[in-house]
Write a structure and sequence with these properties.
By secondary structure, this protein is α/β, with parallel strands linked by helices. It has helices at 11-21, 69-72, 167-175, 214-224, 239-252, 270-276, 317-335; strands spanning 8-9, 31-35, 48-49, 59-60, 64-67, 81-89, 103-107, 119-122, 126-129, 132-135, 145-146, 157-159, 180-184, 188-194, 198-199, 210-211, 228-235, 255-259, 280-286, 288-289, 293-299, 308-313, 344-349, 354-355, 361-373, 376-383, 401-405, 411-412, 417-422. The protein binds adenosine monophosphate and magnesium ion.
Length: 423
Amino acid sequence: MVCNSNALWSASEAEAHINQLAQPLDPQRDRELLPLTQSLGRVLADTVTSPLDFPHWDNSAMDGYAVRFADVQQCSADRPITLAVVTEIPAGKIPQVSIKAGQAARIFTGAMVPLGADTIVMQEDTEREGDRVILRQAPQPQAFVRHRGSFQRSGEPLLPAGIQLQAADLAILAAAQCTQVPVYRWLRVAIFATGDELVPPDRPLQPGQIVDSNSYALAALVQQGGALAQVFGIVPDSRADLRRAIISAQESADVILSSGGVSVGDYDYIDELLQDLGATLHIRSVAVKPGKPLTVATLPGVGDDRPRLYFGLPGNPVSSLVTFWRFVQPALQRLSGRRDAGCRWLTVPTAEDLHSGGDRETYVWGRVTWTQGGNGEEIQFNPAPGYQNSANLVNLAQTNALAQVPLGVKRIGAGDRVQVLLV
Ligand code: AMP
Ligand code: MG
């Protein structure tokens, strides 16, 4: 089925439509429980609730003395107060005595505050003489006591569903003793490259052949995004081979990415085959440069009823990456269950003039850099040096941003601010 797919979509229309098509994995059905040590980079499928108060008990934030505020509130340089040190409480030990009037406990950072005491005086503000401690200045009431539950109460949400777990999140899960973490299963993404001219990188090149570089970039981007890349390799421009590849991708993956074969050339069979296989073709071209030919389709699921999202990316290496960054990456994030799915835009000055034909939204690839300028940190966009052409992948190296020259704009001058997509 074809639905208005012959229209030339604007980038934002295409983005919104793809967003609707990218239905997240099911947090109940598409989940697994993983050991904490294996959950880095995975997306949390449930809100994790704290089983504990944080801190778990009143404890000291300093090495010093646990005292009764009432005993020491009047103390000053002129009227020092001497307390009897009746016990010592290292971290991890349960206080054995409670503190009575005129007494103090030697205490260390993280140790439980003993009954009777309500204030910690830091070691640096005291003098020790044998079994006694002398104070020459009054502390604030409850100073340096970290109260039970003051950071977080048990039963409250600790981490929300849909976050991609990072180092600090693992620390929080460990502290909450959540050793089996509910995460979404991997999103599976099949990748194949189409073209009779393509050879793998380890094969001697014959005249007219080129190396399939797209498979490597796409697989890396899929993995970086926290999904599982299933690399199918090179498929020749033959209807039968392409059909077989699409069907086996349909069986094994949630999302299918192909590169090449979606333009208007005689050997561009992808769209036609997708229709034969019962796909709904949503988008066939988007008014962006590079990357105009872009097919977005949904295919029926095989083995389960989840529709498969198909992206037919253009073959030119830069076009293929740019359309991935602009349209596929946010969709994969959304499908993976991420609550922060979407393109990350930043507005920064450009270091050089940026040009466009004006007839399509144009992306100039390059780097956003942070440098130490006269007025502190300076951030700017530097277009990749050399020839910016959709077939030239050489100057894509180290790209971390795409500057967007909007439709109708032919030039953005050096020093002017430009919207960049962080990739
Ligand atoms: P196509 O969209 O199939 O017409 O391909 C457009 C251009 O991209 C052609 O010059 C192809 O040789 C090149 N191309 C297609 N697929 C790849 C690939 N996997 N890696 C590198 N270049 C490719
Ligand atoms: Mg081709």
